[in-house]
Design brief:
The complex is a heterodimer of chains A (175) and B (572).
Chain A (H helix, E strand, L loop, with lengths): L1 E13 L6 E8 L4 E6 L2 E3 L10 E14 L7 E9 L5 E10 L5 E12 L3 H10 L21 E17 L6 E2 L1
Chain B lengths: L11 E4 L8 E8 L12 H10 L6 H14 L5 E6 L7 H8 L7 H16 L6 E4 L31 H9 L9 E2 L19 H6 L6 E9 L10 E10 L4 E5 L12 E4 L7 E8 L6 H26 L10 E14 L5 E9 L4 E3 L6 E3 L2 E3 L4 E15 H6 L9 E9 L5 E10 L5 E12 L3 H9 L30 E16 L15 H36 L4 H9 L1
Antiparallel strand pairs in B: 1-8, 2-3, 2-10, 4-6, 5-7, 6-7, 7-8, 9-10, 11-16, 11-20, 12-14, 12-15, 12-17, 13-16, 17-18, 19-20
Classes of the chains: A mainly beta (175), B alpha+beta (572).
């Protein structure tokens, strides 16, 4: 079996409409993959920068996978939430990216979007907050059924991911 | 300080995993000879006080004078003693104290009493060096890890801003002038009880925080008083702190080395420049023996192999390899952003065009439609996953005359969705899927066909756009034959850009020897290796067929006479 170490950080987020952001993250892998060590999901703190447009999280990621095959390469999916002054959390963005397959350190920008509802829902969202959410967050990293979704562009999340691979060359895998 | 060759006092901080019991510190204590002592510059007051205070036993000045007289008479010889961790060495005062059973109240003191009696029988020679161990609970010795607030300020002028870090670091790296604190006994019996809480803002407190309680201490002391005033002038030579939890050892002042190779620390008894002692702290902890070293290495390798066994059991061994004669290409990617398109609400329709010899595990994933997304500042975030597991059959390639196989293309069109649910094409583009393994970030520029001016007007006001009949026209059209690809006659205009990310993983049946592959992916070599393997397989298969045919022919022979069959079988 081959092994993959994923070590990195969820560095920051830019381009979101307001401050007070936090991020839920998770790493999904296919059926042939097994987590040997490390946490595959988590949540960052709420960052409230005083004036910058950048929310800094620097949240650590450290997972060790073992795999039976290349199929189902792990992907990280992110949900950015806004924590408002009344203590409510509303979804500000969904995003995902594949973990880079080549070994080394990679700077990855994950683009995010959020679903939009009907006109009445958008009207309510503007004044009261809240908004549409995905019923099944799996849709973020699933290519089927995507065409039914109406979304709007949100900010992007910046990751720094280091990948260490082991034994892939032995099985004829070039990464 | 009168003499220049003095050592500055730092606190040495050491990290160790070894048992602290192995720690040994050798102390050389030397009384500086009278010839080396500079002339005293203060005369009157001290002499007056000497005369006045000669009768009163408690005055420190008198102690000094008597100490000097005693020291001058004494031949200045080095006193060398090796202290191991928490080794109790009794001072003369303590010997006197514990000799009397009436002074002993606790179990520890009674134990000391027994020890003192045996020591007393062995030798009664006067020795200055002694130690306080952790159990002594000597808490009212002032730590000399203090701050000199007015020194070591890096900036000139003004009151510098002292933040917590500066203070803490300065307490750690005490670059202070080392002034040994004199230890006064106020009450000779009560001293033995714990009086105060330790760790009120010294370096150790900052360093270890709440782990303070787990810290063990040992003091190496010197009784520099005269013979008739035992225990009056006790000086701390060295404080050793050991924190078993963090494995940190603090030695203050730090270990300096042997007397002939390093500068000494200096003590002036009662601040008197004429009565000076020098001392050296030397680390003499013995190294481990060869046998132990081998044993330790054995244990270590055993632990390591055990851990790697556990890991191997967790990880397992099996791995799905791709069948011989094929090359598997896995593509993990995203369509990330669409930029600079005219319309606001956009989505992408894409498909992969597989040339001859390629196949895919699940055909459904080869085409798709993304979610529609509203642009902000001309930028659309799609984040649409692209997941293709493709296979290249190398046996098909052998028939064709091409050296390098045709690579699959990703063709796409960007469409806009308007308020009434109508969509029209905003751009066409295609990209050849990267043929080298690794991470690829690509930007594709797109175009769209334009018709007559009236259709442009219609597009602006009503919507709708000329479209391509055959979308493969964006690349090399399917019907195309011949040497020249001409697209003349099609009027187009540029539209926006599409950013994509591809992670490409190539898997071949033979293992990759990275050292033999210079530079980046040498796909051609891999291909030739794979075709070589397959051609070897073909030869083997042909051999097997011939062999079977031969056997069948032999069986025909067997029916006629049996004896040659045995000979053939033997020779075979």
């Amino acid at each position: 079996m081959a092994e993959v170490h994923i070590i990195g950080q969820i560095l920051s987020a830019t381009g979101f409409p307001s401050h007070n952001l936090f991020c839920k993250w998770g790493i999904h892998a296919g059926a042939g993959w097994r987590v040997i060590e490390g946490l595959t999901d988590g949540q960052t703190h709420v960052d409230n920068p005083s004036w910058q447009d950048i929310a800094v999280w620097s949240h650590p990621i450290d997972v060790h996978f073992a795999t039976k095959g290349v199929q189902g390469w792990p992907k990280i999916h992110l949900q950015v939430y806004h924590y408002d002054k009344f203590g409510r959390s509303e979804v500000y963005g969904y995003g995902f990216c594949y973990i880079p397959t080549s070994p080394g350190t990679h700077k990855v920008d994950v683009v995010t979007w959020r679903p939009i509802g009907t006109l009445a829902e958008q009207f309510r969202q503007h004044f009261l907050g809240g908004g549409a959410q995905l019923k099944t967050p799996d849709l973020v990293h699933n290519s089927t059924d995507r065409y039914r979704l109406q979304t709007e562009t949100m900010g992007s999340v910046h990751l720094e991911i280091s990948v260490i691979l082991r034994n892939f060359a032995k099985f004829g895998v070039e990464t | 300080m009168p003499l220049g060759d003095e050592r500055e006092a730092f606190t040495g901080i050491y990290k160790t995993n070894d048992p602290i019991q192995n720690l040994k510190i050798r102390v050389h204590l030397r009384h500086v000879k009278a010839a080396h002592i500079p002339l005293p510059q203060f005369v009157n007051e001290d002499q007056d006080r000497d005369i006045d205070g000669a009768s009163s036993a408690s005055a420190t000045a008198s102690v000094t004078v008597s100490g000097i007289s005693q020291a001058r008479g004494h031949t200045s010889e080095d006193e060398i003693k090796t202290f191991s961790w928490q080794e109790k060495v009794f001072s003369n005062y303590e010997i006197e104290l514990y000799k009397n059973i009436g002074n002993c109240h606790t179990a520890l003191q009674e134990q000391y009493h027994k020890q003192v009696i045996t020591i007393n029988r062995q030798h009664s020679q006067q020795e200055r060096l002694f130690s306080y161990v952790h159990n002594d609970n000597v808490t009212n010795i002032e730590e000399f890890l203090f701050l000199n607030q007015d020194e070591n300020i890096p900036t000139s002028g003004g009151e510098p801003h002292h933040n917590h870090l500066v203070t803490a670091m300065r307490q750690l790296q005490i670059k202070q002038r080392y002034t040994p604190q004199k230890f006064f006994r106020r009450d000779k019996i009560k001293r033995r009880q714990p009086l105060t809480q330790e760790g009120s803002g010294n370096a150790e407190f900052h360093l270890q925080g709440h782990l303070q309680a787990t810290c063990q201490k040992m003091y190496i002391m010197a009784d520099l008083s005269s013979s008739n005033e035992i225990g009056a002038n006790e000086y701390v030579l060295c404080v050793i702190r050991w924190n078993a939890v963090s494995g940190s050892l603090l030695v203050s002042p730090d270990i300096c080395g042997a007397p002939n190779s390093s500068k000494p620390y200096r003590i002036e008894v009662d601040g008197d420049a004429r009565n000076v002692y020098e001392y050296w702290l030397e680390l003499v902890s013995g190294g481990i023996s060869e046998e132990e070293e081998i044993k330790e290495a054995e244990v270590r390798s055993k632990i390591y192999s055990h851990q790697s066994d556990i890991r191997r059991a967790k990880v397992g061994e099996d791995f799905t390899t791709c069948p011989i004669g094929t090359l598997a290409i896995h593509i993990f990617g995203q369509i990330n952003t669409l930029r600079n398109f005219d319309d606001k609400n956009l989505f992408v329709h894409y498909f992969v065009d597989l040339p001859k010899g390629w196949s895919c595990d699940s055909t459904s994933s080869l085409s798709g439609i993304s979610a529609s997304c509203r642009a902000v500042d001309g930028c659309v975030h799609l984040g649409h996953p692209l997941l293709f597991s493709l296979k290249l059959n190398l046996s098909d390639m052998e028939d064709s005359s091409e050296i390098f196989p045709k690579w699959p293309q990703l063709m796409f069109e960007v469409l806009s969705l308007d308020w009434w649910g109508r969509y029209c094409t905003e751009g066409y583009g295609y990209i050849v899927i990267p043929s080298t393994a690794g991470l690829h970030q690509t930007t594709t520029h797109t175009w769209r066909p334009i018709g007559s001016p009236s259709s442009e007007l219609r597009r602006f006001f009503i919507g709708g756009n000329p479209e391509l009949d055959d979308i493969t026209f964006v690349g090399v059209p399917q019907q195309h034959e011949g040497n020249l690809l001409g697209k003349y006659g099609l009027l187009t205009t540029t539209s926006g850009n599409v950013d994509m990310v591809f992670n490409v993983v190539i898997q071949s049946p033979s293992s990759v020897d990275r050292a033999s592959l210079p530079g980046r992916s040498a796909l051609l070599e891999r291909l030739s290796a794979s075709t070589l393997v397959s051609s070897v397989n073909q030869v083997l298969a042909a051999f097997r067929r011939a062999h079977e045919r031969m056997l069948a022919a032999k069986e025909g022979l067997d029916l006629r006479n049996e004896s040659p069959q045995q000979a053939v079988a033997l020779s075979h």
